[in-house]
Amino acid sequence: MPDTPDRPVAYRAYEKLAPGYDRKGETKPANAYLERPATLSLLPNVQGDRILDAGCGAGHLTTELTDSGATVVGVDVSHTMLTYARPRVPTGEFIQADLGSTLPFPDNSFDGIASSLAFHYVRDWNSLLRDLRRILSTDGWVVFSVQHPHADFEEYDDSVNYHETEQVTATWESFGMAVDVPAYRRPLSAMIEPALDAGFQLDELLEPTPTEAYREADPVSYEYEATHPNFLCVRLLISI
Questions:
Q1: How many Cβ atoms sit within 10 Å of the Cβ of residue 231?
Q2: C or N terminus of the chain, fewer CB within 10 Å?
Q3: In this structure, is the dihedral angle defined by the CA atoms of residues 50, 230, 34 and 117, taken in order, positive or negative?
Q4: How far apart are CA 59 and CA 229, in angstroms?
Q5: Among 229, 231, 61, residue whose Cα is nearest residue 146
Q6: How far is CA 240 from the centre of its chain?
Q7: CB count in 10 Å sphere of residue 179
Q8: 160 phi and psi, to 5 degrees?
């Protein structure tokens, strides 16, 4: 992907993070024992379905979807992430694409769309949700997880106004190196209203709490996560 001013906000960060994310993404407690189980709990039976993994990263969610019997297409903006996803899921199809732009699929291409911690790197959710609605079949669904809006506002040092969509940055050190990772934080209303405007209905909203496996893996972080929101998981259905 060419190096232009329009390059997606977290592209450079994830190119650097990819090796560590590949190694630790499967077992890092916040992912393995908090966000991913909650996201998976919102999925319907995907056996035999064609599913888009939107922002697939190194392919950890793609693996879960494939193991559940789905045919999966993964898209991610990071070229390096996809070099790890392809060998992790040899039966998957992987395409480099930006969720902030029109996706390279015809209308009605997928039975469902799953996304793990990717949408908060997209500024314009109105265009994103309209495009996801376009590529879904008439009885399709979207299940996605994002950073929790309350946690974002409280924990990003450069947050100013909860009610606005703001570009913010945090330094991550848990994947083997210090990397500044920019994202867009927004209020809860700015997460739900674009979905409703795009023709979805809100079917379920989940604020996950850590599993017992999280406590065993990282008891210190467990105590914090058990009382502070970190992620938000959402299931959308197409409005009838």
A1: 23
A2: C
A3: positive
A4: 25
A5: 231
A6: 26
A7: 19
A8: -125, -50
Strand ranges across the sheet with 136-147 = 93-96, 71-76, 50-54, 110-116, 136-147, 231-238, 200-206
Residue 173 structure tokens = 């050190």
Tokens (6 digits) for 9: 């906000």
Q: What is the pLDDT of residues 96-146, one digit of tens each?
A: 999 999 999 999 999 999 999 999 999 999 999 999 999 999 999 999 999
Residue 88 in contact with residue 63, Cβ under 8 Å? yes
pTM: 0.94
Residue 72: is it exposed, middle or buried by C-beta count within 10 angstroms (0-12/13-18/19+)? buried
The per-residue pLDDT for 5 is 39
Mean pLDDT of 147-155: 95
As a whole number, mean pLDDT of residues 184-210 equals 97
For range 14-36, the mean pLDDT: 91
Q: What's the rounded Cα separation, in Å, for the pair 154 and 231?
A: 13
Question: Do the beta carbons of residue 84 and residue 113 sit within 8 Å?
Answer: no
Length of the chain measured in residues: 240
129: tokens are 């949700």
